[in-house]
Recover the amino acids of this structure.
């Protein structure tokens, strides 16, 4: 058995954790789900969930990982031996497999778009052409499956070598570049004529548009964007030395994720309204809107290529974290079988992702519960399994680890005032579980059912 892997620097961990968090969730999924769920109100609820449930959960996953120095499944075993709690880790690994299977379909779209932008074939098109071109890309079975495969191969190639070296070196340059490019994009978008309508759609909450489903989606979105609920962050923090400050890492990851969410929204919605797109377009939203914004810029083609490359990078660093939790659990941290496990997982994930890749073409009309295979997988993962995993992790930390030990773990590497610790403890032990259960029950319509009963019989 080889020595347990470690991040080589403090920055390494933050970059990797932020790299896992920042990806399609904040940049692709948030705008399109916000667009179909009423805009500002959805975004506000997402922010509240991120701050009050996501942030405390992130610290919880960090504690489980760093204190045990073990991957997803063994970590729970070592804290609660002879119990069933390691099921939380198994659930996490299973969910990662499903998540990555459709995540890499979208990753494939980016690969495809990037290759096309390099040839200049994405520039100077009319609005309808972008929609048509994107429609062709995602509906063509060979292109969709081929790009999905390419994306998985890329991810496996990085993970098989161990994530630490690669991520740290590249992220240092790529992440800041992504932010800078976003700021350029936002500036252009905001100065388009008619941009204001988009800003107000995105930032002005209209609560009449909120349904119990909206709240459930916002909850799932908050966990998705922070990589929570399936022990990804447990795995990453197991490579962390004891001296790091967990609260500081948490603030960096949450802060950067919120920042990129806002930038993505401000890049997209003003342009949606100014250029005549529909906010309700769905998964294709950023792929049709953003090239059109670049079209309105000097050196637009160059910026578009750069942007797609950085978006691909952000997507890959998230995909890596998803594959890493699977591989780390299968190899139990040993490097001897890493390669084999990475490829085996890759093949399984690729196969499982094929129906998702075909969901925008051949299987467009094969609906299960009214959803395409892609949407069904996304719904199950984002809105059921992530919140369920988060609920279990909150219960685990709040009930299975003694309060004094938690305080010791949190303050190792940082000085946390006891009052602040108590606030965190309250959030994780009471607020998080109650809120998640409440949102679930609400979505199931339990409360309106009870109200109806009371009105009828009361
Ligand atoms: N957070 C990533 C994104 O927004 C996706 C992701 C990576 C993820 N690891 C995860 C989502 C773990 C949920 C759980 O693109």
């Amino acid at each position: 058995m080889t020595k347990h892997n470690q991040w080589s620097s403090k920055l390494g961990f933050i970059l990797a954790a932020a790299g896992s968090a920042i990806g399609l969730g904040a940049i692709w999924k948030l705008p399109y789900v916000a667009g179909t769920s009423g805009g500002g109100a959805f975004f506000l609820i997402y922010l509240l969930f991120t701050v009050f449930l996501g942030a405390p959960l992130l610290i919880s996953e960090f504690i489980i990982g760093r204190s045990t120095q073990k991957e997803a499944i063994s970590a729970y075993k070592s804290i609660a031996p002879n119990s069933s709690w390691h099921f939380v880790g198994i659930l996490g690994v299973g969910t990662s497999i499903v998540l990555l299977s459709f995540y890499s379909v979208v990753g494939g779209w980016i690969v495809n778009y990037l290759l096309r932008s390099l040839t200049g074939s994405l520039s100077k098109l009319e609005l309808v052409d972008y929609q048509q071109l994107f429609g062709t890309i995602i509906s063509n079975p060979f292109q969709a499956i081929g790009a999905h495969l390419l994306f998985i191969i890329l991810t496996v190639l990085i993970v098989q070598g161990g994530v630490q070296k690669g991520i740290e070196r590249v992220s240092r340059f790529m992440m800041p570049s992504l932010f800078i490019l976003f700021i350029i994009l936002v500036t252009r978008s905001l100065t388009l004529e008619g941009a204001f309508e988009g800003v107000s759609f995105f930032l002005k909450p209209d609560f009449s548009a909120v349904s119990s489903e909206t709240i459930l989606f916002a909850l799932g979105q908050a966990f998705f964007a922070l990589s929570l609920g399936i022990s990804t962050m447990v795995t990453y923090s197991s490579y962390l030395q004891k001296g790091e400050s967990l609260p500081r890492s948490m603030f960096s990851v949450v802060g950067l994720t919120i920042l990129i969410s806002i930038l993505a929204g401000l890049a997209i919605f003003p342009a949606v309204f100014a250029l005549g797109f529909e906010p309700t377009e769905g998964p294709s939203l950023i792929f049709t809107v953003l090239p059109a914004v670049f079209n309105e810029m000097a050196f637009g083609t160059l910026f578009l290529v750069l942007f797609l490359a950085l978006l691909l990078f952000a997507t890959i660093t998230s995909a890596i974290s998803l594959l890493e939790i699977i591989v780390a659990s299968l190899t139990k941290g040993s490097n001897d079988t890493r390669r084999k496990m990475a490829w085996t997982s890759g093949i399984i994930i690729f196969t499982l992702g094929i129906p998702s890749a075909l969901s925008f073409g051949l299987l467009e009309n094969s609906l299960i519960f009214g959803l395409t295979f892609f949407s069904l997988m996304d719904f199950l993962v984002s809105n059921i399994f992530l919140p369920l995993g988060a609920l279990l992790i909150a219960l685990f930390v709040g009930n299975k680890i003694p309060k004094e030990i938690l305080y010791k773990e949190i303050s190792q590497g940082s000085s946390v005032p006891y009052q602040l610790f108590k606030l965190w403890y309250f959030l994780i032990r009471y607020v998080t579980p109650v809120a998640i259960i409440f949102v679930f029950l609400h979505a199931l319509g339990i409360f309106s059912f009870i109200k109806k009963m009371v009105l009828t019989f009361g």
Observations:
- Residues 20-21, 23-26, 224-225, 227-230, 232, 318, 321-322, 386 surround tryptophan (CB under 6 Å).
- The domain at 3-457 is CATH 1.20.1740.10 (Amino acid/polyamine transporter I).
